[in-house]
Amino acid sequence: MGNYKQLFKQPQFKAKLLGIPLVILGIILLLYQTDISIKIGFSCILIGLFMIVMITEKTVPELISNAQIKGHSDALKNITSQLNLKGNAWIIPSHDLLSEERVFIPLHSSKISLPPLDDDIVFATGTDGTSLGIILPPSGLSLLHEVEKHISFTDTEIERVEEKLQTFVGMDILRSISLKQKKGQWNLILERPLYCTRDERFCKQYPCPSCSAVLTAISKATNQKIQIQDTVHNGKKTTFYFTTMRL
């Protein structure tokens, strides 16, 4: 039964399920031999064949893609553990010295100051101890680039970001997205990310690709730094509590 469920989730299988009825409908319409039925019939057949034959790119099975993500997550967990990093992530938008967004994971959870950032810095070794940490590309940066082929997040007020974020839902990356401001911080609720570590401590430090892509999109859209305050898992939903700050 589980194999059938996995099969029905695959886009190429869904396309074939829609394409076959369209071809059958097109053949039936051709039998009526009126101008309208012939035009509609041919259209149905062409669209149906396109969905059956052309949309055949096989996606990587979900279990395999999740295993790959888990491998990267486990490796980074070991690094943060060995470096004894305790702080929650800051997501930093690009700026004059930084060509792409970055995540700063600080050593401490309090009294944090951000180090100067550029494309070459990985380890921040501030002498005052408040800017110690590591600087990495967000895990969802490549995913965000794919989403941005459909919509731009640049220069968007945070109150309007939620509408654009629904693109992630339309692309089946998430089931639902909600972004609300409460008591001076933002609550981001993501339902069914493609992969989640279910590790609330690690989610606060280095979110999984789908969650990371959304958070990075918000930072990019508003040109603001995001500091994750907390992360909570509730069933299939993951909630991020964060604050924002101008560059």
Q: What features would you highlight for this structure?
A:
8 strands; disordered N terminus; 247 residues; single chain; alpha+beta; eight-stranded antiparallel beta sheet
Structure description:
With 247 residues, the chain is α+β, with helices and mostly antiparallel strands. It folds into two domains: 2-54; 63-246, no CATH class. The protein has eight helices and eight strands; from the N terminus they run H-H-H-H-E-E-E-E-H-H-E-E-H-H-E-E. An eight-stranded antiparallel β-sheet has the order 3-4-2-1-7-8-6-5. Strand 5 and strand 6 form a beta hairpin. Helix 2 (11-32) packs antiparallel against helix 3 (35-54), helix 5 (141-147) crosses helix 8 (209-222) and helix 6 (158-170) runs antiparallel to helix 8 (209-222). It is elongated and about 85 Å long. Residues 1-9 and 54-58 have low confidence and may be disordered.
Structural class: alpha+beta
The count of β-strands is 8
Termini separation comes to 51 Å
What percent strand? 15-25%
Which residues form runs of ≥5 with pLDDT under 50? 1-9, 54-58
Average pLDDT, all residues: 81
Total domain units: 2
Helix content: 40-55%
Gyration radius over CA:
23 Å
Overall outline? elongated
Strand order of the largest sheet: 3-4-2-1-7-8-6-5
With helices defined by DSSP (H or I, 4 residues minimum), what is the helix count?
A: 8
Run of helices and strands: HHHHEEEEHHEEHHEE
Biggest pleated sheet: 8 strands, antiparallel
